[in-house]
Design brief:
The structure is a single chain. By secondary structure, the protein is of the alpha+beta class. Helix content is 21%, strand content 47%. It has three helices and seven strands. A seven-stranded antiparallel β-sheet has the order 1-7-6-5-4-3-2. Strand 2 and strand 3 form a beta hairpin. It is globular, with a radius of gyration of 14 Å. The mean pLDDT is 93.
Length: 139
């Protein structure tokens, strides 16, 4: 199986600690855990997560474990779902201060090079845009 890596970046109008915290807070719109149908979330090193979201009329389960949490700079966790074909992939987020903003860079490594693997780019872009909107809602 051929594998790909995806990298996306977004400026977020907040400091790195605030962005880091929102990413891990299931109650904050803009984070990946918000609005999940089912959720288990233990954001500590070796802590596990499981979440189920509705998309395209069906439930999609995702699970993994946290590898690295270095507030406010890095979050790294594994990511497994039907869309990864059951392969354990790795998601790494870096939070870099840029003046009054934070540059969030998300790298998802080891995805299958197929339509479902590449579709993660759309999902991560949606979440990063939602997070940017959470901190700076459109006028």
């Amino acid at each position: 199986m051929n594998l790909i890596d995806l990298t996306l970046s977004r400026p977020i109008t907040a400091n790195p600690g605030e962005v880091f915290d929102v990413w891990l807070d299931a109650k904050s719109p803009g984070g990946p855990w918000f609005g999940c149908e089912r959720l288990i979330l233990n954001p500590v090193p070796d802590g596990l997560f499981y979440h189920c979201v509705r998309h395209q009329g069906r439930a999609w389960a995702h699970y993994g474990r946290f590898i690295r949490l270095e507030r406010p700079r890095v979050i790294e966790h594994t990511w497994v779902s039907e869309a990864t074909r059951g392969v354990e992939t790795v998601v790494m987020l870096a939070f870099e201060p840029r003046g009054s903003d934070t540059e969030v860079t998300l790298r998802h490594s080891g995805l299958p090079d197929d339509a479902m693997g590449r579709q993660h780019e759309e999902g991560w872009a949606f979440l990063l845009d939602a997070m940017a909107g959470w901190f700076h809602p459109p006028a």
